């Protein structure tokens, strides 16, 4: 019996998923090389990518859509308002961008969250 398999009257416990078979990386260096090959030509951020997890389980995770923003605070060299933009990307490519210029942080919060939530609601209604 393998050391990582424990048989019991109520079931079988496999510790660490068993021993490697052909095709399974034998160490993290090999896993990294495989991962790099699987992700060739893909952007690292903003799109799903292949990643090895503990026990060399393979994940294909990432956002199909992402929200990115930057707002400059009221300062002498930025200006007197909170200004900046929100960019919505799909599969790592810019899909939509909206600029904001608000007098107060509360105004900025309300406008940006309203815009992003409204965009999300429109998207959800299209996907039903």
Question: Keyphrases for this structure?
Answer:
alpha+beta; three-stranded antiparallel sheet; 2 helices; single chain; 128 residues; 2 domains
Mean pLDDT: 88
- Tell me the overall shape: elongated
Radius of gyration: 23 Å
Low-pLDDT segments: none
- Strand share of the residues? 25-35%
Which series of helices and strands comes N to C?
EEHEEEEEH
Structure class = alpha+beta
Count the beta strands: 7
Distance from N terminus to C terminus (CA atoms, Å) equals 51 Å
SS field, number of helical segments: 2
What percent of residues adopt helix (DSSP H or I)? 25-40%
Order of strands, widest sheet: 5-6-7
Q: Sheet with the most strands? A: 3 strands, antiparallel
Describe the 3D structure.
With 128 residues, the chain is α+β, with helices and mostly antiparallel strands. The chain has two domains: 38 residues, no CATH class; 63 residues. Helix content is 27%, strand content 34%. The protein contains two helices and seven strands. The strands form three sheets. Strands 5-6-7 form a three-stranded antiparallel sheet, with helices on one face. Strands 1-2 form a two-stranded antiparallel ribbon. Strands 3-4 form a two-stranded antiparallel sheet. It is elongated, with a radius of gyration of 23 Å. The termini are far apart. The model has no long low-confidence stretch (mean pLDDT 88).
């Amino acid at each position: 019996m393998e050391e990582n398999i424990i048989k019991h009257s109520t079931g079988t416990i496999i510790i660490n998923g068993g021993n490697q078979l052909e095709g399974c990386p034998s160490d993290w260096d090999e896993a990294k090389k495989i991962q790099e090959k699987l992700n060739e030509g893909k952007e690292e951020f903003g799109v799903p990518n292949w990643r090895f997890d503990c026990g060399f389980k393979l994940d294909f995770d990432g956002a199909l859509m992402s929200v990115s923003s930057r707002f400059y605070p009221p300062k002498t060299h930025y200006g007197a308002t909170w200004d900046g933009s929100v960019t919505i990307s799909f599969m790592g490519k810019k899909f939509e961008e909206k600029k904001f210029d608000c007098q107060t942080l509360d105004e900025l919060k309300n406008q940006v969250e309203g815009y992003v939530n409204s965009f999300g609601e429109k998207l959800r209604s299209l996907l039903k």
